[in-house]
Specification:
single chain; mainly alpha; WD repeat; Zn_ribbon_mio; MIOS/Sea4; WD repeat protein mio zinc-ribbon like domain-containing protein
Protein backbone atom coordinates (compact mmCIF):
# COMPACT_ATOMS: atom_id res chain seq x y z
CA UNK A 1 0.00 0.00 0.00
CA UNK A 2 2.81 2.40 0.92
CA UNK A 3 4.60 1.73 -2.37
CA UNK A 4 1.47 2.51 -4.33
CA UNK A 5 1.68 6.15 -3.20
CA UNK A 6 5.00 6.75 -4.97
CA UNK A 7 5.19 9.76 -7.31
CA UNK A 8 7.97 11.54 -9.20
CA UNK A 9 7.56 14.69 -7.12
CA UNK A 10 10.69 15.26 -5.03
CA UNK A 11 9.01 17.30 -2.30
CA UNK A 12 5.88 15.18 -1.86
CA UNK A 13 4.46 14.23 1.53
CA UNK A 14 4.90 10.54 0.64
CA UNK A 15 8.69 10.94 0.29
CA UNK A 16 8.92 12.81 3.56
CA UNK A 17 6.91 10.21 5.49
CA UNK A 18 8.69 7.20 3.95
CA UNK A 19 12.15 8.67 4.60
CA UNK A 20 11.38 9.02 8.30
CA UNK A 21 9.55 5.73 8.78
CA UNK A 22 11.55 3.28 6.61
CA UNK A 23 14.09 2.63 9.36
CA UNK A 24 11.30 1.19 11.49
CA UNK A 25 10.68 -1.60 8.99
CA UNK A 26 11.83 -5.11 9.94
CA UNK A 27 12.26 -6.38 6.40
CA UNK A 28 15.65 -5.17 5.09
CA UNK A 29 14.54 -5.46 1.47
CA UNK A 30 11.49 -3.27 2.03
CA UNK A 31 13.74 -0.78 3.80
CA UNK A 32 16.13 -0.82 0.81
CA UNK A 33 13.24 -0.35 -1.62
CA UNK A 34 12.00 2.78 0.17
CA UNK A 35 15.58 4.05 0.45
CA UNK A 36 15.96 3.70 -3.31
CA UNK A 37 12.65 5.43 -4.10
CA UNK A 38 13.25 8.33 -1.71
CA UNK A 39 16.94 8.85 -2.48
CA UNK A 40 18.37 11.80 -4.33
CA UNK A 41 19.65 11.11 -7.83
CA UNK A 42 22.97 9.18 -7.68
CA UNK A 43 22.90 8.71 -3.89
CA UNK A 44 22.18 5.09 -3.03
CA UNK A 45 23.96 4.63 0.30
CA UNK A 46 20.71 3.55 1.96
CA UNK A 47 20.64 0.54 -0.34
CA UNK A 48 24.33 -0.22 -0.78
CA UNK A 49 25.17 -0.22 2.93
CA UNK A 50 22.07 -1.98 4.22
CA UNK A 51 23.97 -4.75 6.03
CA UNK A 52 20.99 -7.12 6.23
CA UNK A 53 20.68 -7.25 2.45
CA UNK A 54 22.70 -10.09 0.88
CA UNK A 55 26.08 -9.08 -0.52
CA UNK A 56 25.25 -10.55 -3.93
CA UNK A 57 22.13 -8.35 -4.15
CA UNK A 58 24.00 -5.20 -3.15
CA UNK A 59 26.72 -5.92 -5.70
CA UNK A 60 24.11 -6.54 -8.41
CA UNK A 61 22.41 -3.24 -7.54
CA UNK A 62 25.74 -1.40 -7.65
CA UNK A 63 26.60 -2.89 -11.06
CA UNK A 64 23.31 -1.61 -12.44
CA UNK A 65 23.11 1.89 -10.97
CA UNK A 66 26.65 3.10 -10.17
CA UNK A 67 29.21 4.58 -12.52
CA UNK A 68 32.48 2.71 -13.08
CA UNK A 69 34.38 4.92 -10.63
CA UNK A 70 31.67 4.65 -7.99
CA UNK A 71 31.48 0.89 -8.50
CA UNK A 72 35.23 0.43 -7.97
CA UNK A 73 35.16 2.47 -4.76
CA UNK A 74 32.13 0.60 -3.46
CA UNK A 75 33.55 -2.87 -4.22
CA UNK A 76 36.87 -2.00 -2.56
CA UNK A 77 35.16 -0.61 0.53
CA UNK A 78 32.74 -3.53 0.81
CA UNK A 79 35.57 -6.05 0.37
CA UNK A 80 37.54 -4.50 3.22
CA UNK A 81 34.44 -4.53 5.42
CA UNK A 82 33.82 -8.21 4.67
CA UNK A 83 37.45 -9.09 5.42
CA UNK A 84 37.47 -7.27 8.74
CA UNK A 85 34.13 -8.77 9.79
CA UNK A 86 35.03 -12.28 8.65
CA UNK A 87 31.77 -12.47 6.69
CA UNK A 88 31.80 -15.54 4.44
CA UNK A 89 29.55 -13.78 1.94
CA UNK A 90 32.60 -11.70 1.13
CA UNK A 91 34.17 -14.68 -0.67
CA UNK A 92 31.97 -13.58 -3.57
CA UNK A 93 34.26 -10.54 -3.82
CA UNK A 94 37.64 -11.94 -2.77
CA UNK A 95 37.48 -15.42 -4.24
CA UNK A 96 39.66 -18.10 -2.64
CA UNK A 97 42.78 -15.98 -3.00
CA UNK A 98 45.12 -14.33 -0.50
CA UNK A 99 42.36 -11.82 0.28
CA UNK A 100 40.05 -14.78 0.78
CA UNK A 101 42.50 -16.26 3.29
CA UNK A 102 42.56 -12.93 5.15
CA UNK A 103 38.76 -12.99 5.27
CA UNK A 104 38.75 -16.60 6.44
CA UNK A 105 41.29 -15.77 9.13
CA UNK A 106 38.93 -13.15 10.56
CA UNK A 107 36.09 -15.68 10.39
CA UNK A 108 38.10 -18.34 12.26
CA UNK A 109 39.25 -15.82 14.87
CA UNK A 110 35.62 -14.85 15.45
CA UNK A 111 34.00 -18.31 15.41
CA UNK A 112 36.75 -20.93 15.84
CA UNK A 113 35.18 -22.87 12.95
CA UNK A 114 38.25 -24.57 11.48
CA UNK A 115 36.10 -27.16 9.70
CA UNK A 116 34.50 -24.65 7.35
CA UNK A 117 37.83 -22.93 6.76
CA UNK A 118 39.59 -26.21 5.97
CA UNK A 119 37.01 -27.46 3.49
CA UNK A 120 36.65 -24.09 1.77
CA UNK A 121 40.38 -23.72 1.26
CA UNK A 122 40.79 -27.30 0.04
CA UNK A 123 37.84 -27.22 -2.33
CA UNK A 124 38.66 -24.19 -4.41
CA UNK A 125 42.07 -22.74 -3.61
CA UNK A 126 45.10 -22.96 -5.92
CA UNK A 127 48.18 -24.76 -4.62
CA UNK A 128 50.02 -21.57 -3.68
CA UNK A 129 47.19 -20.57 -1.32
CA UNK A 130 47.16 -24.04 0.25
CA UNK A 131 50.80 -23.54 1.18
CA UNK A 132 49.88 -20.54 3.33
CA UNK A 133 50.83 -21.24 6.96
CA UNK A 134 47.39 -20.19 8.16
CA UNK A 135 45.64 -22.66 5.87
CA UNK A 136 47.93 -25.49 6.97
CA UNK A 137 47.32 -24.54 10.61
CA UNK A 138 43.53 -24.75 10.16
CA UNK A 139 43.77 -28.11 8.42
CA UNK A 140 46.02 -29.61 11.10
CA UNK A 141 43.86 -28.22 13.90
CA UNK A 142 40.79 -29.75 12.29
CA UNK A 143 42.52 -33.14 11.96
CA UNK A 144 43.63 -32.97 15.60
CA UNK A 145 40.10 -32.03 16.63
CA UNK A 146 38.65 -35.08 14.88
CA UNK A 147 41.27 -37.26 16.59
CA UNK A 148 40.43 -35.76 19.99
CA UNK A 149 36.75 -36.56 19.42
CA UNK A 150 37.69 -40.10 18.31
CA UNK A 151 36.23 -39.50 14.86
CA UNK A 152 39.04 -41.46 13.27
CA UNK A 153 37.01 -42.60 10.27
CA UNK A 154 35.96 -39.02 9.57
CA UNK A 155 39.59 -37.94 9.88
CA UNK A 156 40.61 -40.65 7.42
CA UNK A 157 37.87 -39.58 4.98
CA UNK A 158 39.06 -35.99 5.28
CA UNK A 159 42.66 -37.03 4.58
CA UNK A 160 41.55 -38.96 1.50
CA UNK A 161 39.53 -35.99 0.29
CA UNK A 162 42.50 -33.73 0.95
CA UNK A 163 44.96 -35.92 -0.97
CA UNK A 164 42.64 -35.91 -4.01
CA UNK A 165 42.39 -32.13 -4.08
CA UNK A 166 45.98 -31.47 -3.00
CA UNK A 167 48.25 -34.34 -4.17
CA UNK A 168 51.25 -32.73 -2.47
CA UNK A 169 49.65 -33.44 0.93
CA UNK A 170 49.66 -37.20 0.40
CA UNK A 171 51.98 -38.62 3.09
CA UNK A 172 54.83 -40.90 2.14
CA UNK A 173 54.64 -44.53 3.20
CA UNK A 174 56.10 -44.98 6.69
CA UNK A 175 55.69 -48.75 7.14
CA UNK A 176 56.82 -51.43 4.73
CA UNK A 177 56.49 -55.19 4.50
CA UNK A 178 59.99 -56.68 4.56
CA UNK A 179 61.29 -60.02 3.39
CA UNK A 180 61.97 -62.66 6.09
CA UNK A 181 65.17 -63.69 4.33
CA UNK A 182 66.96 -60.57 3.06
CA UNK A 183 65.14 -57.94 5.10
CA UNK A 184 64.50 -55.72 2.08
CA UNK A 185 61.17 -54.03 1.50
CA UNK A 186 58.74 -55.81 -0.77
CA UNK A 187 56.71 -52.60 -1.23
CA UNK A 188 57.99 -52.71 -4.79
CA UNK A 189 55.04 -54.97 -5.46
CA UNK A 190 52.97 -54.44 -2.32
CA UNK A 191 51.51 -51.17 -1.06
CA UNK A 192 51.32 -50.70 2.69
CA UNK A 193 47.90 -50.05 4.11
CA UNK A 194 48.16 -50.00 7.92
CA UNK A 195 45.21 -51.00 10.08
CA UNK A 196 44.61 -49.16 13.35
CA UNK A 197 43.56 -52.17 15.39
CA UNK A 198 45.94 -53.40 18.10
CA UNK A 199 45.51 -57.12 17.50
CA UNK A 200 46.19 -57.40 13.78
CA UNK A 201 48.19 -55.53 11.15
CA UNK A 202 47.03 -55.53 7.55
CA UNK A 203 48.88 -54.67 4.37
CA UNK A 204 47.39 -54.58 0.90
CA UNK A 205 48.72 -55.96 -2.32
CA UNK A 206 48.78 -53.36 -5.10
CA UNK A 207 47.42 -53.72 -8.59
CA UNK A 208 44.21 -55.21 -9.89
CA UNK A 209 42.84 -57.87 -7.52
CA UNK A 210 41.91 -60.10 -10.43
CA UNK A 211 45.43 -60.35 -11.85
CA UNK A 212 48.26 -62.63 -10.77
CA UNK A 213 50.31 -61.37 -7.85
CA UNK A 214 54.02 -61.45 -7.20
CA UNK A 215 54.56 -64.21 -4.63
CA UNK A 216 58.28 -63.76 -4.03
CA UNK A 217 60.61 -61.05 -2.77
CA UNK A 218 61.77 -58.80 -5.63
CA UNK A 219 65.21 -58.64 -3.98
CA UNK A 220 66.22 -62.22 -3.21
CA UNK A 221 63.39 -64.04 -5.03
CA UNK A 222 62.58 -66.10 -1.93
CA UNK A 223 58.86 -66.89 -1.53
CA UNK A 224 56.62 -64.71 0.60
CA UNK A 225 55.08 -66.23 3.75
CA UNK A 226 52.23 -68.67 3.36
CA UNK A 227 48.67 -68.08 4.52
CA UNK A 228 47.99 -70.10 7.69
CA UNK A 229 44.68 -71.32 6.27
CA UNK A 230 45.08 -71.90 2.52
CA UNK A 231 48.87 -72.50 2.75
CA UNK A 232 49.38 -70.50 -0.45
CA UNK A 233 52.07 -67.85 -0.63
CA UNK A 234 50.94 -64.32 0.13
CA UNK A 235 50.36 -62.24 -2.98
CA UNK A 236 48.19 -64.92 -4.57
CA UNK A 237 44.55 -63.92 -5.16
CA UNK A 238 42.31 -65.58 -2.58
CA UNK A 239 39.38 -67.87 -3.20
CA UNK A 240 36.94 -69.38 -0.72
CA UNK A 241 38.37 -69.99 2.72
CA UNK A 242 39.21 -73.56 3.79
CA UNK A 243 37.81 -74.27 7.21
CA UNK A 244 35.54 -71.22 7.06
CA UNK A 245 31.92 -71.02 8.21
CA UNK A 246 29.13 -72.69 6.25
CA UNK A 247 27.92 -69.39 4.92
CA UNK A 248 31.40 -68.70 3.57
CA UNK A 249 31.48 -72.00 1.67
CA UNK A 250 28.85 -70.65 -0.71
CA UNK A 251 30.76 -67.46 -1.39
CA UNK A 252 33.81 -67.15 -3.62
CA UNK A 253 35.75 -64.24 -2.14
CA UNK A 254 37.49 -63.47 -5.41
CA UNK A 255 34.17 -62.81 -7.18
CA UNK A 256 33.21 -59.85 -4.98
CA UNK A 257 35.07 -56.98 -6.67
CA UNK A 258 34.41 -54.60 -3.80
CA UNK A 259 36.04 -56.93 -1.26
CA UNK A 260 38.60 -58.65 -3.47
CA UNK A 261 41.46 -56.25 -2.78
CA UNK A 262 40.78 -56.25 0.97
CA UNK A 263 40.75 -60.06 0.96
CA UNK A 264 44.31 -60.05 -0.44
CA UNK A 265 45.74 -57.92 2.37
CA UNK A 266 48.50 -59.29 4.56
CA UNK A 267 47.07 -59.87 8.05
CA UNK A 268 48.77 -61.27 11.12
CA UNK A 269 48.56 -61.35 14.89
CA UNK A 270 50.96 -59.08 16.74
CA UNK A 271 51.32 -61.67 19.48
CA UNK A 272 52.00 -65.00 17.78
CA UNK A 273 52.96 -63.59 14.34
CA UNK A 274 50.74 -66.07 12.51
CA UNK A 275 48.43 -64.82 9.80
CA UNK A 276 47.41 -64.92 6.17
CA UNK A 277 44.98 -63.43 3.71
CA UNK A 278 42.60 -60.96 5.34
CA UNK A 279 39.59 -62.65 3.73
CA UNK A 280 40.58 -66.03 5.14
CA UNK A 281 41.31 -64.60 8.58
CA UNK A 282 37.91 -62.92 8.71
CA UNK A 283 36.18 -66.18 7.78
CA UNK A 284 38.11 -68.11 10.42
CA UNK A 285 37.53 -65.68 13.26
CA UNK A 286 33.80 -65.52 12.65
CA UNK A 287 33.65 -68.89 14.43
CA UNK A 288 36.92 -69.03 16.40
CA UNK A 289 38.98 -66.95 18.80
CA UNK A 290 42.11 -69.13 18.73
CA UNK A 291 44.92 -69.03 16.16
CA UNK A 292 44.33 -71.32 13.14
CA UNK A 293 47.90 -72.68 13.31
CA UNK A 294 48.16 -76.11 14.93
CA UNK A 295 49.74 -76.21 18.39
CA UNK A 296 49.41 -72.41 18.76
CA UNK A 297 47.15 -71.51 21.69
CA UNK A 298 47.15 -67.75 21.10
CA UNK A 299 43.70 -66.18 21.49
CA UNK A 300 44.26 -63.82 18.57
CA UNK A 301 40.69 -62.58 18.30
CA UNK A 302 40.58 -61.51 21.92
CA UNK A 303 43.54 -59.20 21.31
CA UNK A 304 41.61 -57.22 18.73
CA UNK A 305 39.08 -54.64 20.02
CA UNK A 306 36.53 -55.88 17.48
CA UNK A 307 36.70 -59.33 19.03
CA UNK A 308 34.54 -58.12 21.90
CA UNK A 309 31.72 -57.34 19.44
CA UNK A 310 31.22 -60.97 18.38
CA UNK A 311 28.28 -62.71 20.14
CA UNK A 312 29.46 -65.39 22.56
CA UNK A 313 27.24 -68.09 21.01
CA UNK A 314 29.10 -67.70 17.70
CA UNK A 315 32.51 -68.42 19.23
CA UNK A 316 33.73 -71.94 19.89
CA UNK A 317 35.62 -72.51 23.16
Amino acid sequence: MALSGYTDEKNSLWREMCSSLRLQLNNPYLCAMFAFLTSESGSYDGVLYESNVAVRDRVAFACKFLTDAQLNRFIEKLTNEMKEAGNLEGILLTGLTKDGVDLMESYVDRTGDVQTASYCMLQGSPSDVLKDERVQCWIENYRNLLDAWRFWHKRAEFDIHRSKLDPSSKPLAQVFVSCNFCGKSISYSCSTIPHQGRGFSQYGVSGSPTKSKVTSCPGCRKPLPRCALCLINMGTPVSSCPGGSKSDEKVDLSKDKKLAQFNNWFTWCHNCRHGGHAGHMLSWFRDHTECPVSACSCKCMQLDPTGNLIPAEMVQP
